[in-house]
Amino acid sequence: MTLPDDFKQCVDFHGHVCPGLVLGYQATRFGLEWLREHRAEDEEIVAIVENDACFVDAVQVLSGCTFGKGNFIFRDYGKIAVTFLSRNSNRGVRISLKPDKTPSDPKHRELFQKIQRGDATEEERKEFYKLHEKRSTELLQKKPEELFNIKEVEMILPPKARIEPSVICDECHEPTMKSKTLEHHGRILCKECAQAISGRGE
Fold first, then answer.
1. The pTM is what?
2. Percentage above 90 pLDDT, the chain
């Protein structure tokens, strides 16, 4: 099938086509359409993702929410879900995968486990990627409302990203954002050095 141009952008960023990327693409398009928003140039939209897998790469590409802008928030819940908040309308929406909408294929899972272990043959690798592409195509052809639950949410918008001067850590001498430092026996330390010194019992 011919891939949509905006999905091709997600593939270019992520590196390959896979079911997780398709789900992120579908969820983000669904959320932005619901909010009547376009891709954020700055911090107009905030995205809160609940997994750190392929899904989130499509969220970043389509929504314009990124770690660097400070409008991309990760919560380690292990769920295929994302919440979008709009600073323009003060509206929010959470999109989450419906149960049993991506049923497990035993053969696909078996081949994936072999690849993970490093003992898959070349033929098995080819078969896996063929199944992978087939599942991705099937998901891409579905309507987002077939895949996801969508729920309006009320949340306090997080503050915009802060830009602040750095201070020098007294241990490693690396510049560190001032608000991320700790004081230890009169010394200003970055969190990494503070943890190391604490671990040594100093």
1. 0.82
2. 68
